[in-house]
Design goal:
The protein is 35% helix and 23% strand. It has helices at 34-42, 61-64, 82-92, 97-110, 126-138, 156-171, 183-189, 207-211, 253-263, 276-285, and strands at residues 2-5, 8-12, 23-28, 53-54, 57-58, 67-70, 144-148, 176-179, 192-197, 200-205, 217-221, 233-239, 242-247, 268-272. The strands form 4 sheets. It has a 6-stranded mixed β-sheet with strand order 6-7-8-3-9-10, with helices on both faces. Helix 3 packs across helix 4 (97-110). This is ABC-2 type transport system ATP-binding protein.
Length: 289
């Protein structure tokens, strides 16, 4: 897809696909145009070039009624009661009144909102508003889920609840796309990740696939101030008493261990793949791993 605003290129040929039952993490810096991409997929914005397809067919208005969307900004009626709002939104998506009430009540219970069902949305905490926002995206039993920063403002318990819900929807065959700056959550939840920079998809794949070219790092906790002076060994980082090393081709990790033991006790010695946060930082800044 492509999108311009005057002379500014917002989306520069971005392209990706999400399979049935897949959790896809959509990450990028502020201003990378993740939200613009989602809005085009939903028909809120028009693309200047490209197309959006679902099940091989071009997305139409009818298709979009089957999408569950959770915007980053609050998209709820602030003075409407929680249960009334969910029923209303379910009916807008085509559910009859009885089914809309059943679905609204089911998601109110599932998301821990039972004690807030007769409250106005504006009187809820930000975390509970976020729960209602998720319920609004789910209440019509969507065939696709598109969530923009769904974990924003949630406490750890609410994060666990939302994570479980997303896993359950994916397990039922629903494609789930969500953006987040909480890269530890993205790494833990997602089957694949797409990294966006300046409107372009600069990396896409599983975390293992994306980090494989960088290779694993050796983490060593040894005597204070210990630094390996060995050919082919490079210090990547020194953090909390640990030294993170990159070993060149042919370097034996046991040689590093011997050097560390010669300086004193070794409390930790293990291989570690780069995290998604490290990968993201390297991709976006162009720094070497």
């Amino acid at each position: 897809m492509s999108k311009r605003y005057g002379s500014v290129v917002a989306l520069d040929g971005i392209s990706f696909e999400v399979g049935p039952g897949e959790l896809f993490g959509f990450v990028g810096s502020n201003g990378a145009c993740k939200t613009t991409t989602m809005r085009i997929a939903l028909g809120v914005l028009a693309a200047d070039g490209g197309e959006v397809r679902f099940g091989g067919e071009l997305v139409t208005h009818e298709t979009r009624t089957r999408i569950g969307y959770m915007p980053e900004e609050r998209g709820l009626y602030p003075k409407m009661l929680v249960s009334d709002q969910l029923v209303y939104l379910a009916e807008l998506h085509g559910l009859d009144t009885a089914r809309a009430h059943r679905s609204a009540e089911a998601w109110i219970e599932r998301l821990g909102l039972a004690g807030r069902r007769r409250d106005e949305v504006q009187k809820l905490s930000l975390g509970n508003q976020q729960r209602v926002q998720l319920a609004a995206a789910l209440v019509h039993d969507p065939a696709v889920l598109v969530l923009d920063e769904p974990f924003s403002g949630l406490d750890p318990i609410a994060v666990d609840v939302m994570s479980d819900v997303l896993r359950e929807k994916a397990a039922s065959g629903v494609p789930v796309v969500f953006s987040s700056h909480q890269l530890d959550l993205v790494e833990r939840l997602c089957d694949r990740v797409g990294i966006v920079q300046k409107g372009r998809m600069v990396a896409c794949g599983t975390v293992a696939e994306l980090t494989a070219p960088a290779g694993a790092h050796l983490v060593v906790s040894a005597a204070p101030g210990w630094t390996p002076e060995l050919p082919g060994v490079r210090v990547v980082a020194a953090e909390s008493g640990r030294t993170v090393l990159s070993l060149g081709p042919g370097v034996d990790d046991q040689t590093v261990l011997s050097a560390a033991l010669a300086a004193g006790p070794v409390r930790e010695f293990r291989w570690r793949r780069p995290s998604l946060a490290e990968l993201f930082r390297n991709v976006v800044t162009g720094s070497p791993s």
